[in-house]
Amino acid sequence: MAPDTPTTDRVEPGSAGSWARRRRRLERTVEPLVDCSLEWVLALPFVPIAFTAFVMTAGITANQGADPGWPQWALIVPLGVAYAAIVYWLYREWDRATWRAAVVVRKPSTDEIGAALLATLVGIAIVVVGNNAAETVGLAPHDRGLVTSGAGIAALVFGTVVVAPIAEEILFRGLVLGHLVARGYGIVAASILSVLLFALVHVFMAGVVSIVVTGLLGALLTVLRLWYDNLVGAWLMHLSINVWGLLVTVGVVPVLW
């Protein structure tokens, strides 16, 4: 857990110049990330997608060019494994200062927890409205369909609940956003680029609908990360949204689209 910032650096919501102080604090937090390669930072989040595509290609090749017939949830396993492997590799390779600059974990304030829970409700509304709009115009919704098998549920828990909220927050709101800010990108430009990358890695789920929905969710996650200079609130929102999505997928919670 990152050490607490000195009292003189703490930010009280609503105080004069609070955003300027928040920005200065953020810039100090991410400063160790400036030495990373920009190309490497932007490419790293796509490695799990590439690995999953490799696994799918291997399956098709082994099946003599035919679709191996894997259920959609099956590819969550290699995706989750790749994400977990990248986070572990970063932990082993980075010095502690660089690790803490990307993995910003502080004790959350009551305000941050409340904001994360409110953002979760807004995020669920975004998914519901987005999926209803998609079905209205004949597009596939941003969901995984119904999964009832034990193996499928286990894969979803591993990939979407255990791994994704941690790994994606570290990579997108930690590394990508932090590195761009450390390099001198404006907050808005850095946020937009990190949100776009986050949306693009979800394109394989439901195409343009997934890009729009996850882009809006990514914007909420980014606001939490920036406002509190912490990944905990963003992680809490991400986890809560994914748990809700899991409950919908396994039929515990009704589908609202």
TrEMBL record:
Q: Which residues cross the membrane?
A: 40-61, 73-91, 113-134, 146-167, 182-201, 208-228, 234-256
Pfam families in the record: Rce1-like
> Which GO terms label this protein's molecular function in UniProt?
endopeptidase activity
Reply yes or no: does the keyword Heme apply.
no
Give the domain of life. Answer: Archaea
Q: Name one GO biological process term.
A: CAAX-box protein maturation
What positions does the domain CAAX prenyl protease 2/Lysostaphin resistance protein A-like occupy? 153-243
Q: Which keywords, in A-to-Z order, does the entry hold?
A: Membrane, Transmembrane, Transmembrane helix
Is Transmembrane helix found in the keyword set? Answer: yes
State what protein this is by name.
CAAX prenyl protease 2/Lysostaphin resistance protein A-like domain-containing protein
